[in-house]
Specification:
Blueprint (H helix, E strand, L loop, with lengths): L4 H5 L2 H66 L5 H11 L6 H19 L5 E8 L4 E5 L4 H5 L15 E7 L13 E11 L2 E11 L1 H11 L4 E6 L5 E4 L7 H9 L5 E8 L2 E9 L5 E8 H4 L1 H47 L14 H61 L2 H18 L4 E3 H18 L4 E7 L7 E3 L4 H12 L6 E10 L2 E8 L6 H8 L11 H14 L4 E7 L3 E9 L3 H4 L4
Parallel strand pairs: 12-14
Antiparallel strand pairs: 1-2, 1-5, 3-4, 4-5, 6-7, 6-10, 8-9, 9-10, 11-13, 14-15, 15-17, 16-17
Length: about 600
């Protein structure tokens, strides 16, 4: 007979298989994930180090070339007090007033100087020395004055203090051609010429833009796609044609660098990309190599996929093995389950046999023992059921007696008032109060209520002992509202009367004192009766004292009740001296009404 699917899913075989399979899959998943994460980190580190090394080499070469050319610009622009610097300032400041012959002579000297310092400078296309009106002395193929002045950042030149200004790549009309406009792009390094605290001209050197392409594109092409942009403006300086960046991609990349170098992942329109960058201190350009994550992790992803396929294959084999083994293990459990169903149908005569000596075999033996015991218990329960019914009837009848006696005492009290018998009235009232307290179902009462019960008890005992004793109550202020176990003091008071005061030939006294000490409520019952010898006191305090007789069984019960309810350090202590006194002191926790409910 086929079992329902829900039953199969709840079976031990399914749970065992699922647990082992889950453990196996979790282990493989964690292993593959940790390996893939480490491989990814290694690939990122290696790619970052390789790209950073190539960026550093290319950037250092570019900076070296540009700084070498900047030295030419600085020689002419910075006022060092030498002959050529004075000649340059004289040319600019006296251009309109100088004799033409002298002007031509100065121009030739400056031009010869430009030729001498500019020779053999690779990638240098030309050097321009100019005032702010456009009077220029040129060497090589330079960018015209109007073209330079039209550059957006040219206006910064006049406000600078002899610092180099690097104009972003721009077109030199004299080098460009209609066939290939990109051939005319140059980078201009310019410095202001200052005199008397103001800019009077500038020196500008044009560097062929091919220096950037040659240094960077050659070195970094194999590492990934490259992007160079102006760090301040975010404008691209070099962007490979196949980069294919959308405007939002470029904006995302430009906004990320927040240091001189580093790496990060960027989610671009072309896919998730690993970016390695460095910012040049001289050019203020950021060079960035972009490596698609797919190509960066191609080897790791391939190995990961192979590991996952192998894991799936092993998982399938593991499922088959687990199912086979669990079927063998759970076959006997299924037999035991069917036997339990028979027991559930009140068939206690079922018995199962097995030759297995493992834990399942032990369960079979325990099951057979259980069914035999259950049969015996059923017979025993049936034989005692009638007795229990009769006992319940007797218990119900016994519950009537205290209420009947309480009502009868009230009747006696009423008749004593009519007859003027005050002593009978007092005894009836006291006994009625005690019975009312006894019938109260609360396990804890306030100290004031317990004292009322004691007063009622002593009122009755005074008639019995013919006023042979006096009672004094002493309560510390505030203890009356604390809670203590109900009817716990009456056995102590009874012992004081019976064993301490009754044997006296003279009148005795009992003192009931309640006070607080060490965050505990103390209750001391002391009498001036016959007392006890050390041997009697030692025998009374022995653990087995309550089992030796009924003389002081009340003390043992009280001690046991306190220890059971509250544990250490609460309990009962006794001091006594023969023919002088006996004192019994009980200690309780200081409980409010709400706190006492925890012990109910």
């Amino acid at each position: 007979m086929h079992r329902p699917l829900r039953t199969r899913l709840n079976s031990i075989k399914f749970k065992l298989s699922a647990a082992i399979l889950l453990l196996f899959v979790t282990f493989m998943s964690v292993t593959v994930y940790m390996w893939y994460a480490n491989s990814t980190a290694d690939a990122e580190r290696q790619a970052g180090q390789a790209a950073a090394a190539m960026i550093n080499v290319s950037s250092d070469n570019l900076e070296t070339s540009l700084r070498d050319i900047d030295k030419i610009v600085a020689l002419l622009s910075v006022d060092t007090g030498e002959y050529m610097n004075d000649l340059v300032r004289k040319y600019i400041e006296q251009y309109d007033t100088m004799d033409k012959v002298e002007l031509i002579h100065i121009e030739r000297e400056i031009q010869d100087y430009l030729v001498n310092v500019s020779m053999f400078k690779h990638y240098l296309t030309g050097v321009t020395l100019s005032d702010l009106e456009g009077h220029t002395i040129e060497y090589g193929v330079t960018t015209p004055f109007d073209a330079l002045r039209s550059q957006p950042s040219f206006g910064e030149l006049t406000g600078m203090e002899n610092e180099a200004l690097l104009l972003p790549p721009h077109l030199n009309p004299r080098l460009g051609s209609s066939a290939d406009p990109q051939k005319g792009k140059v980078i201009t390094i310019a410095r202001p010429i200052r005199s008397g605290g103001r800019a009077i001209g500038f020196v500008a050197a044009d560097v062929d833009y091919e220096i950037v392409e040659d240094l960077f594109a050659t070195n970094i092409r194999n590492a990934g796609r490259m992007l160079i942009f102006n760090t301040r403006t975010g404008q691209p300086v070099l962007e490979q044609p196949d980069l294919g960046l959308a405007p939002s991609d470029l904006e995302r990349l430009v906004s990320r660098p927040d240091a001189d170098g580093g790496s990060f992942y960027a989610r671009l329109s072309t896919g998730n990309t690993f970016a390695v960058y460095r910012t040049s201190a001289f050019t203020k350009w950021t060079t960035m190599v972009l490596i698609p994550k797919a190509s960066l992790l191609a080897d790791s992803s391939s190995t990961r996929d192979k590991m996952l396929n192998v894991s799936l294959l092993f998982s399938a084999v593991a499922v088959l093995l687990i199912l086979s083994m669990s079927s063998l293990l759970t076959r006997n459990l299924l037999r035991l389950g069917r036997a339990l169903k028979e027991v559930a149908k009140n068939n206690l005569d079922v018995a199962i046999e097995t030759k297995s000596q493992d834990e399942i075999g032990q369960l079979y033996h325990q099951f057979n023992s259980m069914t035999r015991r259950m049969s015996d218990l059923v017979a025993e329960v049936r034989s005692t059921e009638r007795e229990r019914s009769r006992a319940e009837i007797r218990a119900l009848q016994a519950q009537i007696n205290p209420h009947f006696l309480h009502n009868t005492l009230n009747t006696i009290k009423f008749l004593s008032i009519l007859q003027g018998a005050d002593n009978i009235k007092l005894v009836a009232e006291s006994l009625s109060g005690l019975m009312h307290a006894q019938m109260d179902g609360r396990p804890f009462v306030s100290v004031d209520e317990e004292m009322d019960c004691l007063r009622s008890y002593f009122s009755i005992q005074k008639f019995r002992y013919s006023d042979k004793f006096a009672v004094h109550f002493s309560l510390e202020e505030g203890v009356g509202k604390l809670m203590i176990p109900k009817m716990l003091l009456q056995p102590i008071a009874e012992n004081a009367l019976l064993h301490g005061i009754a044997p006296l030939k003279t009148q005795g006294a009992i003192q009931i004192k309640l006070f607080t000490s060490d965050a505990q409520l103390k209750v001391r019952v002391q009498d001036n009766g016959v007392g006890m010898s050390p041997a009697q006191l030692k025998a009374l305090e022995a653990p087995e004292a309550s089992a030796r007789g009924a003389d002081h069984i009340g003390l043992a019960n009280v001690r046991s009740r306190i220890r059971t309810l509250f544990g250490e350090p609460y309990g009962l202590s006794i001091w006594s001296e023969a023919q002088r006194f006996t004192a019994v002191e009980m200690s309780f926790p200081m409980l409010s009404e709400e706190e006492a409910m925890r012990y109910v």
